[in-house]
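In practice, a research group might receive sequence data for several interacting partners and want a quick structural hypothesis before committing to experiments. The following worked case mirrors that situation: the sequences arrive first, and a predicted assembly follows.
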Amino acid sequence: MPEAATARAVIGDSEFDRDTALIRREPGVYDIDLSAGWTILGAVNGGYLLAVLGRALAHALPHADPFTISAHYLTASRPGPAVVRTGVVRTGRTLSTGQASLFQYDDEGREVERIRVLASYGDLDALPDDVRTTARPPALPPLEQCFGAEDGPAPVEGGSAITERLLLKVDPSTLGWALGAPSGKGEMRAWFGLADGRDADPLALLLAVDALPPTAFEIGLSGWVPTVELTVHVRARPAPGPLRVSITTRNLAGGFLEEDAEVWDSADRLVAQSRQLARVRL
Amino acid sequence: MPEAATARAVIGDSEFDRDTALIRREPGVYDIDLSAGWTILGAVNGGYLLAVLGRALAHALPHADPFTISAHYLTASRPGPAVVRTGVVRTGRTLSTGQASLFQYDDEGREVERIRVLASYGDLDALPDDVRTTARPPALPPLEQCFGAEDGPAPVEGGSAITERLLLKVDPSTLGWALGAPSGKGEMRAWFGLADGRDADPLALLLAVDALPPTAFEIGLSGWVPTVELTVHVRARPAPGPLRVSITTRNLAGGFLEEDAEVWDSADRLVAQSRQLARVRL
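A structural hypothesis for the assembly, expressed as tokens:
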């Protein structure tokens, strides 16, 4: 397993960068081989997929940073070949809007749409520094007192490859589910980084918001919690260092729940907010 | 002004229904004359526009109820002719996903895109009744102790036509801005209904989430707060009677803020959640 403390990957040259890299087939159309390295029990992580789509739009639009990106998840992605088709909706001075879809191939080689996104991009570095906020960072124990997959027993063969690529240290007070005693509260909190030491950028924030265990586990539910829709607002470029992520679910109703994520950087700035609608098996 | 207490419009036969009615031009393409009745200082309200798009998708998709709808606002809409073009992205047994765009016409008659949305629709009545929630309705004074436009001085000619179509009674504790003394807290709370007495349905919830004065006013900012992106999750079909809406802004940074809305029905159910990213002039 990569050792976060010693590895020194940088933005542009890390596992995350290599596994989200796109090959331009023609203007606005990009090929990619979805890596098996970002799977959870065989399913490709929704945040990794969003980062792939987000990177394609950064190529296709005149602005580089996702300000707000909304994804509707249509069918389950698998590791392997995929194509991202992008379209420019509108370009403006400070904001540009684009659309992108990720497709894979069925047995006859026909494209099957996996995810469709709409997004507005801008330049985070061009924004004024003003911040007025009542939001406070999540209360998390120091990283050394939180728990990761590497602190448990040896992983199951074919389990969650993504855990090897993340530095994910979960607040023990939101880990009751792992001990058979879920708190009943829809909260999950963790320290987040990339295992090879690469610092976070806006694309990595798209991964961060969907990387923690589902809040449904702490509510006492188990099983797959597929995302229907996920919207991320990137509010600032993250400072170097590990991020803190909190996920909150307040309302489970009719077999659906929302997951609200906040991502805070080492400078105590709220760098991303997200909300997803997900389905649960009751 | 319509008198909410006496008027008895019903779902399907009210101002809101007439002003969101679409004429089918060809499969998936609908014409509409955007009403001047839902404007605020000349700008067409974003929630009314979302309801128009939401209604077009209800026609175009096999499911009738928006579960999650994400809108990116591209250019400012004006009262007058518009066309909505819809596309089916995927149809499934319990959820269908569609896309829609609203266009108006420039001086040469060319279509100019105003808004693009992605949405997933289902059948709210088919959901199980299970609710597990830690969310609580907003603390609002009784409707009679809240304030509407009709409680102030006579409206400015050409002011906000939408106020005549809504029963909007704002919590006085979030009205400091109107007296020149904003609280500094990014909160806005109100009772919400349609002035002609029509009860709310899922489409009216799309209007409700964007109908209150901007939270920016209570933060001490003034002027136009244009929406960049707005996502609404409809969580349940609202019970008859007035709704309670709370809007919260926690983080204003770099000239952008989020507005989180919750809508509660008369049966104390959380019927909609929304978040928008909006721009402010600092």
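Before designing any experiment, note the following. The first strand of chain A starts at residue 23 and ends at 26. The two ends of chain A are 36 Å apart (CA to CA).
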